[in-house]
Design goal:
Blueprint (H helix, E strand, L loop, with lengths): L1 H8 L3 H46 L34 H12 L24 H7 L12 E8 L4 E7 L5 H20 L7 H28 L7 H7 L9 H19 L10 H5 L4 H33 L10 H21 L6 H11 L5 H17 L4 H16 L6 H5 L7 H12 L8 H7 L2 H21 L4 H25 L6 H11 L8 H14 L4 H16 L10 H10 L10 H15 L7 H15 L4 H17 L36 H5 L5 H11 L12 H4 L3
Helix pairs in contact: 6-7, 6-8, 8-11, 10-11, 11-12, 11-13, 12-14, 14-19, 19-20, 20-22, 21-22, 22-23, 22-24, 24-26, 25-26, 26-28
Length: 730
């Protein structure tokens, strides 16, 4: 019985097909009926119009005749000469009475005025066409044709009964009344002109509007922050305020909305990337909480995408400098809006490197690093540096490096040097250090099952298993990111950086990018492959000898060369004497003014060339550099003098036999040649550090202390020893 009931309840496939056919037929009938009715009306009106025009053209006007002269059944001949129209006072009484009778009759308008027949005479067979047309009633007087709507049929025992319904006719009188009311209101508004506001009143009104907008923005933002999942739709309402049309407050409101949305996205964005759902995931049944979370994620991603598109459009409008049709924002205000948009993009670049559309933000920011506007360029460069410094894994850094490298290459290396200086903030050195420590401390190998069975008892195997499980969990917790993945990313990043550097060294040696390239090579030289060392040193020496470089650029070349030789370059049999000679020559070319950039590079070079390579440096070379450094300390500003004297102190500790320069009576073979640019052959052992006595009378107190300390032989104890706060500094 249950099976039969179920069969009765579920309609068969044939019935479903049959009913669906009936529905389609009804729809088709409705459509055909509407088309036919409209065509009929149109044809009828056209036919009437054509007939009326034809009749009006063909018919000739017939003058009124005297009814007394006209006899029924006979044709009246027209007189050749027309009689003049008589006024009323000159007409006969019979004529006047006839005219009055005709005027009182109802059929006067429908009859031909030339006939004097009575009203109820039978219609003639050959009646004129125009009379027929006039007698046809007007279509406006008749009721409109009722349109029928075909409904779903009813199935009965006898068969299928079709169902129809009259289409409801809308009342046009109401619409006319509404239009008249709207016109009256418009007339009233036009009659009352708006009073022009003074400047003070205008400012007060603007302040009031702005306060209202601020309160609205704050209310929306606080509602979203309190419950992001429930109020995600309010993000759209807040984003719609980016299109503010009130010219008084449009620019200010748009800036406030940009910053508010940026802070909101930073707060409510999850710490993972949201991927689109697959078809299988969409079709599966899920809980209400999961469905709510999915809706929140989809809404967040879509609104974030639209927000980024709006920011991009603002920057484009500023670049193109085209005024929009709405004319709400002036051309001058475009720059302010663009600066706020770029600042928001920079904040999102740094704050949300893990979230969706991060690569799109990178593509927007990198060209702006080379912008003509210095403020925007600096803002973008600082954001990229910040991203490099905080990026531990290296995924975001790799994306930025790829885009920068492609951009520099596309512009034929004609970009700002600040773009390449951002490479110095990459965190690649730390990974290499971790790699070395892992090589030294190799991971502990766990015992196999066979080894355990041979050496351990059953109870010991049980304990060992639990111990190994705990060690594995600790290791997983300690290494949150995969070291292999990190190393792979950093290796790829470094390859792109070096490719960019080498291309510039090869193709654009006179480019303003060269100092940034040399500085970058000096920092990452220890990570360069040994195969490139020989070629790179040859290129650096060629650049120095060419004479096209400034003293600062040549110092970077020297620094890079010695960084290469101090790392993996120890295995190479290369004599760097030419680089020592160049540095010795360049010391007197340093800027003695306010800038100290050159002095800082010199001190770094001396640390690499003399202190770290003390075993490869001869005493003559060390004496020559100490003498020239003390001479240089007399020419530069006090802060540079302090750094030079501190370096001299370190060299005197590194090379103890250089204290003979403090003794004026000691003499050797030859005469000191201060103008000779060869440190090995200038006979520095035959001179003394008389400059220290001049520096002891320097106006700067710390310079005085350092000079007195060096004259005493740089002791670590005693009255002439430096205080800890000075001696511990680099």
């Amino acid at each position: 019985m249950k099976a039969r009931r179920n069969k009765k309840q579920i309609p068969s496939f044939r019935k479903l097909i049959k009913t669906s056919k009936i529905k389609l037929e009804n729809k088709l009938k409705n459509k055909q009926f509407k088309q036919q009715s409209t065509l009929k009306k149109y044809r009828k009106e056209q036919r009437k119009l054509r007939q009326a025009v034809k009749d009006a053209v063909s018919k000739k006007p017939i003058p009124l005749e005297d009814p007394r002269e006209k006899r029924p059944g006979k044709r009246i001949e027209r007189e050749e000469e027309e009689e003049e129209a008589l006024p009323l006072d000159m007409m006969d009484e019979d004529d006047l009475q006839l005219m009055k009778d005709l005027g009182q009759r109802a059929s006067f308008l429908t009859r031909d005025l030339s006939s004097s027949e009575p009203v109820h005479v039978k219609k003639r067979k050959h009646e004129r066409i125009i009379d027929k047309y006039e007698k046809i009633p007007r279509t406006l007087q008749t009721a409109p044709e009722k349109e029928l709507i075909h409904l779903l049929p009813i199935k009965d025992k006898s068969g299928i009964i079709p169902q129809t319904r009259e289409k409801p006719v809308t009342d046009s009188n109401k619409d006319e009344e509404d239009q008249e009311a709207a016109r009256e209101l418009e007339e009233e508004i036009i009659e009352d002109p708006i009073r022009e506001l003074t400047i003070e009143e205008h400012l007060i009104e603007r302040k009031k509007k702005l306060q209202e907008k601020k309160m609205h923005i704050a209310a929306l933002a606080s509602a979203i922050l309190s419950d992001p999942e429930s109020n995600i739709k309010k993000l759209k309402e807040l984003r719609s305020m980016l299109m503010e049309q009130d010219p008084d407050v449009a620019v200010t409101v748009r800036k406030l909305v940009i910053v508010s949305l940026m802070e909101l996205f930073k707060d409510i964005t999850p710490s993972y990337k949201i991927r689109p759902l697959t078809e299988a995931e969409k079709s599966t049944k899920i809980r209400k909480e999961t469905q709510k979370l999915r809706e929140f994620e989809e809404g967040l991603v879509s609104q974030y995408k639209f927000y980024l598109e709006n920011l991009e459009q603002m920057v484009k409008d500023w670049k193109q400098r085209k005024l929009k049709k709405s004319n709400v924002v002036s051309l001058k205000a475009y720059k302010g809006l663009a600066e706020v948009a770029v600042k928001s993009l920079c904040e999102l670049l740094v704050a949300l490197p893990h979230f969706n559309f991060h690569n799109n933000i990178i593509v927007l920011i990198v060209p702006l690093m080379n912008d003509v506007s210095k403020s925007i360029s600096e803002m973008c460069c600082e954001a990229v540096k910040k991203l490099f410094k905080q990026d531990k894994l290296g995924q975001a850094s790799l994306g930025v490096i790829k885009v920068i490298s492609g951009f520099v290459r596309g512009r034929n290396y004609e970009v700002r040097p600040e773009m390449l200086k951002t490479f110095l903030c990459l965190r690649i050195k730390e990974v290499e250090v971790k790699k070395d420590t892992e090589d030294i401390n190799k991971p502990k190998k766990f015992m196999t099952f066979k080894e355990k069975r041979k050496t351990l008892s059953r109870m010991q195997r049980k304990w060992k298993k639990a111990e190994e499980k705990l060690e594995r969990e600790l290791r997983e917790a300690e290494a949150s990111e995969s070291t292999e993945k990190k190393l792979k990313l950093h290796t790829e990043t470094l390859n792109i950086v070096f490719v960019t550097y080498f291309r510039i060294l090869k193709k654009a040696q006179r480019s303003p990018l060269l100092p940034a390239v040399l500085e970058g090579l000096a920092k990452f030289a220890h990570l360069i492959n040994v195969e490139f060392f020989d070629d790179l040193l040859v290129v650096l020496h060629t650049l120095i000898e060419s004479g096209d470089l400034s003293y600062q650029e040549s110092l970077y070349c020297v620094q890079t060369a010695f960084h290469i030789l101090s790392g993996q370059g120890d295995v190479l049999n290369i004599d760097p004497m030419k680089f020592y000679t160049h540095l010795y020559k360049t010391l007197f070319k340093l800027h003695a003014g306010a800038t100290n950039e050159g002095v800082e590079i010199v001190l770094q070079c001396l640390d690499v060339m003399l202190t770290k390579r003390r075993k490869q440096v001869s005493q003559q070379r060390a004496l020559a550099f100490i003498k020239r450094l003390c001479t240089l300390a007399l020419h530069v500003l006090p802060n540079s003098s302090i750094g030079i004297l501190a370096t001299t102190r370190i060299l005197m500790h590194t090379f103890p036999k250089t204290d003979l320069l403090l003794d004026s009576e000691s003499q050797g073979s030859g005469v000191f040649l201060p103008e000779l640019d060869e440190p090995e052959y200038c006979n520095a052992q035959n001179t003394a550090l008389w400059e220290l006595y001049a520096l002891r009378r320097h106006y700067h107190p710390i310079v005085q202390k350092l000079a007195a300390h060096l004259i005493a032989g740089a002791p670590s104890e005693g009255s002439e020893a430096l205080k800890p706060e000075l001696s511990r500094r680099k």
